[in-house]
Design a protein that fits this description.
single chain; Jelly Rolls; 14-stranded parallel beta sheet
């Protein structure tokens, strides 16, 4: 029987000094009023430190010591909430069995980690078995781009309970479980009965907008850590920081009985396997982008959850249950989406929510697992939606009841119907006599023995959905958490649901709760049960074979329950009763397994019987004890030569050095043995005959994961194709005598395959049989096979399946083929030459380099290219050089065989033409001119001379002498007058186009500030200005001192508009046209390192050398209207360009 805490039982966290004084019976008591006073204390087990009430600023608190379970060291506020910390105040906790309670961080700034469970800055000194409880955190603000984590958990078995986290306006998680230093330890933290409120959206933050969860457990790079964190009984309201309310990025974590109310986002299983999500309430209340559970990675159990009123607002990431198409294997360190495999989604209820079950095609892998006995009623779109025909093909449906809308799919595991929901308080339950009642059988009785409310389900004929409405027994233990629970069992006792300070701490009534124990084996033994109470209690039992110690006590503590060995062939049971003064009795059910006569071992077999493993690689051996029902299944392993291969207690062989070793398995019962011969080989250093050879493959490759990647010598690339079997055939180019192959597999998988050889490409002979392979193919330890010499030009590998890996993808990184002992000697490389030896390129141009390997018949013709300065010029694997920016770079070619090199010098020049006054001293004709002030003065660059003519209009035409590309003019007027005019341009002197219209001009043109105009570039030989009048000036004279025309010789190179658009580049730029601010939003900002914003002449207007967030803004207020080019520099040394208009 399981004993569950009700919400009221969590009030034990608020008892304070009374309970702890009874635990710390032998400690000293101290009173402090500053961090300095506390930090100077040397504390011992049982000590209690009371901090005097008041408001304190800039406190750097260090709380350390070594308490015990029965005598912790306690740091508490004089009254809960009475110690107020602001300014730059932080707390570091490290040591063991330390408790902090009653503090209130109210405002403050400047700290990135306010409370850390470690010594400041340490990577070795952490907190273990420590607790922070009944504390409040309100608007600890750290301005952008910095972020502020309010609590950071390190160490093991620490607890955050009954704390309130309100008004989170800055980036960063409220609680972060840090796993960087976890190593082989199990963190095992508990986060329970806390309140999270008003975590404001951070979408417009330029940095860290995706790091604003209420709780984050781990990071991508530590996703395989078995964190075993418990998140239970917490209340999330308006937790809107980002799309992920809780982010799970580690393994083996549990999420129980939490309530998510009016929150934007979902509980997200981002990375990490084996999460358990049970008994949670997701109440969207119609908020836009409110979601339930998003699933990535494998082996999760999602049961007994209730979802209502979720509104995804068209967001494919926030639905009821979102299953994401994966692209990476479980247990890695990448930030992609792991493959969803072997999950159980069962006995959940989703009521009137958008897209209750949604398949998100983020990647191509089909999620696998079971969707069983879920109850869904919704009128908000299809029940099953998304990429059903793609990633939605791998799940199995069993016993589900869906209704209210179109189902979206047809499956025998789905019954369409209405379960006749009706309101019970704020939630909706199905009818106890409707189609959901008694319809779920007993298949999952051992998994969902309780329903979402803590009621016991029957062993058979269970109800579909989260609520057992027809056959439940027991009392309701769980309901959605409400605002009324805040300050009275959830969150800190001194803050209400709005984050306001209460006049007094919540009253604590008398209570008594007990934990459960698991079933005892027939051999008997002792287990501990925890008692949480604030009254005196006694313990009794009802069976002679049960004994308990102690039999009485007060407050909280533990009791040891011991049972004797069971000699009966039937299971037996009993009861331990804990009775408290003024509270109901609590019982602990005791069950003990029946006695089973031992079955003796008669033998053992070890498989595989032999294996070849690369140095540094591993091979899992499997021992089968006979008979399979033998009582003692224990075995031990040993190696005959540990310098060649070692073996672990679980049969995992690790290859140490070349040679052979015999692994022996021995049964504990009877000493029976079997052996496996392990041959350890090192990867070959000889010439890989398959390197960069022609290759073809079956199936359709996944994007850029083409067959050529299998022979490119790069384990970072792969050939990937969906479905078994698949084959790839390498043409070695000539017949070779071969005798060895090596295979490396994506994610170190143990693919099963055969290799065949052929001299003519039509008749093949099998040379390697790995159809039952269990050896992983790692980069450093490939799957190695040697065989008798075989003459072949064509080598074909056919992959038929995999060991352990259950996905559908064939993904191989390298296939290498080597000559046999009797084969011809490879021809060694003696040198290489690179042509041309030097080249000059304009920015953006390309040049193909050619490498010639000597001698021409060398066996290995493979080469690699590199650039001495990729900011100036890049080079790809085939020798194609791309000019990036002005400067000089050296391109080096290196042969795979022998490392011979040659170089080519690349000079990159800026192609931007220089603008100048192309009218200077050019020929001028006028409509009229004063003899002392001729038209030639208009272009003599002397502002003290002028062209003058009486009467309006008057014109002057400049012959530039040749065609020029012009883009701006300047006019200086005699007496700084504001003449009104137009300027026209022509290529032939007869047909003119207006390029400047100042016919209503009111701007004066002085020497210091000419009348300036820019316009779209135009080719012209003749430029004519016609003056039609003037503003203010009332005379009749046209008097201009200078007309300057700026441009460059026609035919000079100008940057052209690129053909790429923003979707092809991987960045969205808006608004279009841009105004004062240009916003850039990247699909994956880590792909890009810097950017330049240039005008159409290649002149750089803005430059950013640090792209570090998904969204960023550029201030373009001062830029003129026109066309601009945004050049983005990628981490792989390539560039992308898009055209932007202002």
């Amino acid at each position: 029987m399981k004993i569950f805490f009700r919400k009221s039982s969590f009030l034990l966290m608020l008892v304070g000094a009374t309970m702890f004084s009874s635990l710390a019976a032998f400690g000293a008591e101290y009173t402090v009023s500053s961090a300095g006073q506390l930090n100077s204390l040397s504390l011992s087990a049982g000590d209690i430190v009371t901090w005097t009430d008041g408001t304190y600023s800039n406190q750097d608190i260090t709380f350390t010591g070594s308490g015990t379970q029965s005598n912790p060291i306690i740091l508490k506020a004089e009254t809960p909430g009475g110690v107020i910390l602001n300014g730059s105040s932080k707390l570091n906790i490290y040591g063991s069995y330390l408790i902090v309670e009653g503090f209130f961080w109210d405002g403050g700034e400047g700290e990135s980690d306010h409370v850390e469970f470690r010594k400041s800055g340490s990577s070795t000194e952490f907190a273990n078995n420590c607790t922070i409880r009944n504390c409040g955190f309100d608007n600890l603000y750290t301005p952008e781009p910095n972020k502020s984590r309010w609590i950071v958990l390190h160490g093991t078995n620490n607890v955050v309970e009954n704390c309130s986290f309100v008004n989170k306006l800055s980036a960063g998680a409220c609680i972060l479980v840090e796993l960087s230093y976890a190593g082989s330890s199990t963190p095992g933290h508990s986060i329970r009965s806390n309140y999270f409120y008003n975590i404001t959206p951070k979408d417009n933050f330029s940095t860290n907008s995706g790091d604003c969860e209420a709780i984050r457990i781990g990071v991508s790079s530590y996703q395989s850590v078995s964190a075993q964190v418990l998140v239970e009984g917490n209340y999330f309201k308006a937790a809107d920081g980002e799309n992920e309310i809780i982010t799970n990025k580690s393994s083996d974590n549990t999420f129980l009985h939490n309530t998510f109310r009016n929150c934007r986002g979902s509980l997200v299983l981002r990375h990490g396997a084996r999460a358990h999500i049970e008994g949670n309430f997701f109440l969207g209340e119609g908020k836009a982008k409110s979601g339930g559970i998003r699933v990535s990675d494998r082996d999760h159990v999602i049961i007994n959850n209730y979802m209502q009123g979720l509104n995804n607002d068209g967001d494919v990431w926030n639905n009821g249950i979102t299953l994401v198409g994966g692209g990476e294997s479980s247990g890695g360190s990448g930030n992609g989406y792991q493959n969803v495999d072997n999950i159980l989604v069962a006995f959940n209820t989703i009521y009137n929510s958008d897209d209750p079950i949604h398949y998100n095609d983020r990647n191509s892998y089909d999620p696998t697992g079971v969707i069983a006995y879920n109850l869904v009623y919704s009128t908000n779109g299809d029940i099953v939606s998304g990429d059903i025909s793609g990633t939605g093909q791998g799940m199995t449906y069993v016993g589900n009841i869906f209704g209210g809308s179109n189902i979206g799919i047809s499956d025998p595991g789905i019954t369409e119907g209405d379960a006749n929901f009706s309101a019970v308080g704020e939630i909706y339950k199905p009818s106890s006599s409707g189609i959901a009642a008694n319809a779920a059988g007993s298949t999952y009785a051992n998994v969902v023995d309780l329903d979402i409310e803590g009621l016991t389900r029957p062993n058979s004929n269970m109800d579909v959905g989260a609520h057992e409405v027809s056959g439940a027994s027991g009392s309701i233990a769980y309901a959605p958490i409400t605002d009324g629970d805040v300050g009275a069992g959830v969150g800190a006792c001194f803050l209400d649901a709005a984050g306001s300070v209460l006049s007094a701490c919540g009253a604590v009534g008398d209570y008594l709760t007990v934990s459960s124990v698991s079933e005892f084996t027939d051999a008997g033994g002792t287990q501990s049960a925890a008692i949480s109470s604030n009254v005196s209690w006694t313990v009794t039992d009802n069976q002679s074979w049960i004994s308990v110690s102690p039999t009485s006590g007060s407050g909280s503590g533990n009791i040891d329950i011991t049972v004797n060995a069971n000699a009966n062939t039937t299971e037996r049971s009993g009861t331990v009763t804990v009775s408290g003064v003024g509270v109901p009795d609590r019982t602990i059910s005791i069950t003990q397994a029946r006695y089973v006569a031992p079955v003796n071992v008669t033998g053992v077999s070890l498989s595989p019987g032999s294996a070849t493993v690369g140095v540094g690689g591993s091979q899992q051996l499997s021992a089968t004890v006979s008979p399979n029902d033998a009582t003692n299944q224990e075995v031990t392993y040993s190696s005959s030569n540990t310098s060649v291969a070692t073996v672990s207690g679980s049969g995992l062989v690790t290859a140490v050095a070349e040679g052979s070793a015999t692994i022996t398995v021995t049964t504990d019962d009877g000493g029976y043995t079997d052996t496996s011969i392990i041959t350890v080989s090192a990867p070959s250093s000889e010439t890989n005959l398959a390197l960069n050879k022609s290759i073809s493959g079956t199936g359709t490759p996944d994007g850029t994961n083409v067959p050529a990647n299998l022979v490119d010598g790069d384990v970072a690339t792969r050939w990937s194709v969906s479905g078994f079997p698949q084959s790839a055939t390498v043409d070695l180019g000539a017949v070779f005598t071969i005798g060895r192959t090596e295979l490396t597999c994506y994610s170190d998988r143990a693919y099963q395959f055969i290799v065949e050889g052929s001299s003519d490409g039509s008749t093949y002979t099998q040379i390697v049989d790995r159809s039952g392979n269990t050896t992983p193919g790692a980069d450093s330890s490939p799957i190695i096979d040697t065989f008798s010499d075989f003459d072949a030009r064509y080598v074909r590998i056919t992959v038929t399946g995999a060991d352990v890996y259950t996905g559908s993808w064939v993904s191989l990184t390298e296939l290498r083929v080597f000559a046999g002992e009797g084969g011809p000697e490879p021809v060694a490389v003696t040198g290489v030459s690179l042509t041309p030896s030097s080249v000059t390129l304009d920015e953006g141009d390309t040049q193909q380099l050619t490498a010639s390997v000597s001698p021409s018949n060398a066996t290995n013709q493979g080469v690699t290219y590199s650039s001495s300065n990729s900011l100036v010029a890049t080079v790809n694997s085939s020798g194609l050089v791309t000019a990036v920016a002005e400067g000089t770079a050296t391109i080096t070619v290196t042969t795979d065989d022998g490392g011979h090199t040659d170089m080519s010098t690349v000079n990159v020049v800026d192609p931007t033409p220089t603008l100048s006054n192309v009218a200077l001293n050019k020929s001028v004709t006028t409509s009229n001119e004063q003899s002392t002030n001729p038209g030639s003065n208009l272009v003599d660059d002397d502002p003290d001379s002028r062209w003058s003519a009486s009467g309006f209009p008057q014109s002057a035409t400049i012959d530039l002498g040749a065609n020029y590309t012009i883009s701006s003019t300047e006019v200086i007027c005699y007496g700084d007058r504001a003449y009104q005019y137009i300027i026209e341009a022509s290529v032939d002197g007869s047909s003119y186009s207006t390029i400047v219209d100042r016919s209503s001009n009111t701007t004066g043109g002085s020497n210091a500030s000419p009348i300036s105009d820019t316009f779209t570039s135009i080719n012209a030989r003749y430029v004519k200005i016609t003056v039609s009048g003037a503003d203010v000036y009332s005379g009749s004279w046209v008097s201009l001192e200078e007309l300057r025309v700026f441009g460059y010789a026609a035919g000079a190179r100008v940057l052209s508009s690129p053909e790429l658009n923003d979707s092809e580049v991987g960045v969205s730029a808006y608004p279009v046209p841009m105004s004062d601010v240009l916003t850039l939003e990247f699909e994956d900002f880590s792909e890009f390192v810097s950017l330049d914003l240039m005008d159409m002449f290649g002149r750089i207007q803005l430059r950013n050398r640090d792209i570090n967030s998904k969204k960023m803004t550029l201030d373009v207020y001062g830029l003129s209207d026109g066309v601009y080019l945004l050049r983005l520099y990628k981490a792989d040394a390539t560039t992308r360009v898009i055209r932007i208009v202002k």
